[in-house]
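Schema walkthrough. Field components (list of strings):
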Amino acid sequence: EPEVTQTPSHQVTQMGQEVILRCVPISNHLYFYWYRQILGQKVEFLVSFYNNEISEKSEIFDDQFSVERPDGSNFTLKIRSTKLEDSAMYFCASREGQVPIWTGAFFGQGTRLTVV
Amino acid sequence: DQQVKQNSPSLSVQEGRISILNCDYTNSMFDYFLWYKKYPAEGPTFLISISSIKDKNEDGRFTVFLNKSAKHLSLHIVPSQPGDSAVYFCAASSGGSNYKLTFGKGTLLTVNP
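Field assembly_structure (string):
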């Protein structure tokens, strides 16, 4: 079964450093998302990406965050200068373009980001 | 901002019995509701969904009920199996082209053999 893969599974970084989280969405999918879950809290939407541009972003997704689909297969989330409060599990998700919402989205296994 | 609320952080049931997981929402613009299941070290997996124009959707052992007037939905698992032990997330979408999801905090279901 096709799946969304994320690397690395765990990343430890020092405060102020840049970090890039990588995702390979399912190959024929057209919509891509990043969500995050701070420990003990709910899964929160960060950004959606379609047709090579951001289609929607949350207030969490400030200038420190950026996304890119550099080569048609990878989808990356960059945090320019990490803060302690960026520590969370980051989930990438993708969905096909023409299927209805009630089929859900496919999520990767997550990258646990720890900022020290 | 708690547009989707799962007030029970955990639930424990015996194998073979019914599990009922609850979810409340506040945003009247939500038109689809989804349940995701998550095992440790894995991402959320889509389980079942319901449109706001329906009040029930069934898929095998899983049934989701929607009470739009109460802004409440529930997931019933019958019969519960030990393999159902996981965190269950309620999520909602207001449609549009982005299909972004708003999640609840999740309920940890433990099914005891």
